[in-house]
Structure formats: structure tokens, C-alpha cells
């Protein structure tokens, strides 16, 4: 998904190589759970696309 699935890791560690994001993702996820912070991730391109479409519907209903 072009690295977009590691957006949280990128913003936490912008100077870190993108090659390490998958390795640190479980650590970031655990920290989010510990501090009750939502960690949103999509395991497949299709689930990410479905989430995007759902977001579009919700936004269109709000306007």
C-alpha cells in the first residue's frame, strides 16, 4: 500500500528508514493499547479501500 499503512510510524519517527516500519509497528501498537490510543490499521488493500469508501459515505451524509 505504498507505506501508507505505516502512517503512524512515519509520523512518530520521520527520520527512520521506511524499511523498519513493519518491524516497529507491533511496538507502536502495544504502546497505543497501553495508553488507550486508537491504532487503526488495515491488513489488506481491500479492507483499506472499504474503509475509505465508508468514510466517503459518512462525509457525504454530513454535508
TrEMBL record:
One of its GO terms (cellular component) is membrane. InterPro entries: FA_desaturase_dom (IPR005804), Fatty_acid_desaturase (IPR012171). Pfam families: FA_desaturase. GO terms for molecular function: oxidoreductase activity, acting on paired donors, with oxidation of a pair of donors resulting in the reduction of molecular oxygen to two molecules of water. It comes from the Eukaryota. GO terms for biological process: lipid biosynthetic process. Residues 1-41 form the Fatty acid desaturase domain. PANTHER family: DELTA(5) FATTY ACID DESATURASE C-RELATED, FATTY ACID DESATURASE 2. This is Fatty acid desaturase, partial. It comes from Ectocarpus siliculosus (Brown alga). The lineage of its organism: Eukaryota, Sar, Stramenopiles, Ochrophyta, PX clade.
Amino acid at each position: 500500500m505504498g507505506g501508507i499503512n505505516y502512517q503512524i510510524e512515519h509520523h512518530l519517527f520521520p527520520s527512520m528508514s521506511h524499511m523498519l516500519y513493519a518491524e516497529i509497528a507491533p511496538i507502536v501498537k502495544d504502546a497505543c493499547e497501553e495508553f488507550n490510543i486508537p491504532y487503526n490499521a488495515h491488513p489488506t488493500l481491500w479492507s483499506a479501500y472499504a474503509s475509505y469508501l465508508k468514510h466517503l459515505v459518512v462525509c457525504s451524509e454530513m454535508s
